[in-house]
Amino acid sequence: MKSIKILDRKNMKNLDQLLNEVEYIEIANVSAAAGSGYFILEDIADKKYFPIPKATMKEYGLNPRYTLVVPVKGNSMEPTVSDGCLVLVDTTPVNNVSLIDNKVYVISVDDLCYIKRFKLLPRSKYIKAQSDNRDFAYADLAIEKELIDNNLKIIGKLACIVKSSYRL
C-alpha cells in the first residue's frame, strides 16, 4: 500500500516552483472534427484549462494569450493527428495572405469546426482544406479565399499535439 506524503514547507516550495513552470491554457468549448464538422458552442461559463509547460510554449513560440487547447475527434487527419488528441493551436490572427502552404489549421466554416491541412493553389481563388487520411478525401473542402472572415474563420494554426488520447 502506498503512503500519502504530507506536504511540508519544503515540499510546498517545490509545488510553487512546479506551478510557476506551467501556463494554464483554455480548452476550446468544441472539438475540431477531423472529418465532418462539429458545431461551435458559444459562451460556456464553465471554462476548462490544461497545464502546458512554459518551456513547451517557448519551444513553439506561443503566446499564452493567443493559444488554445483543442480536442480532436475523428480520424481523417491520421497519421498526423489521431482521434482523441489534444492539440495546441496558435490563435494569432491570420489572413489569407499569411497562410502557410501544407500547414494544419483549425477552422470554422458556417459555424462548424474542422481541423484540416491547407494546400494553397497557385493562381487560384481557392484554398484546398484536406484530410491527411486519403480515405476521407470526401471530407476535403475547397474554400474561396474571398470568404475568409465571412463564412470561414481561421481559429488557428496547429502548433503541436499535447496529449495523444484524452476524453473530456
Description of the structure:
There is one protein chain. With 168 residues, the protein is mainly beta. The protein has one domain: Ribbon (Umud Fragment, subunit A), CATH 2.10.109.10. 11% of the residues lie in helices and 37% in strands. The chain has 2 helices and 11 strands. It has helices at 9-20, 54-59, and strands at 22-26, 32-33, 38-39, 49-53, 67-73, 86-90, 104-109, 112-120, 126-130, 141-144, 152-163. Strands 2, 3, 5, 6, 7, 8, 9, 10 and 11 form a 9-stranded mixed β-sheet that branches. Strands 1-4 form a two-stranded antiparallel ribbon. The radius of gyration is 18 Å and the shape is globular. Residues 1-7 have low confidence and may be disordered.
Topology record:
Elements: H1 9-20, E1 22-26, E2 32-33, E3 38-39, E4 49-53, H2 54-59, E5 67-73, E6 86-90, E7 104-109, E8 112-120, E9 126-130, E10 141-144, E11 152-163
Parallel strand pairs: 2-5
Antiparallel strand pairs: 1-4, 3-8, 5-6, 6-11, 7-8, 7-11, 8-9, 9-10
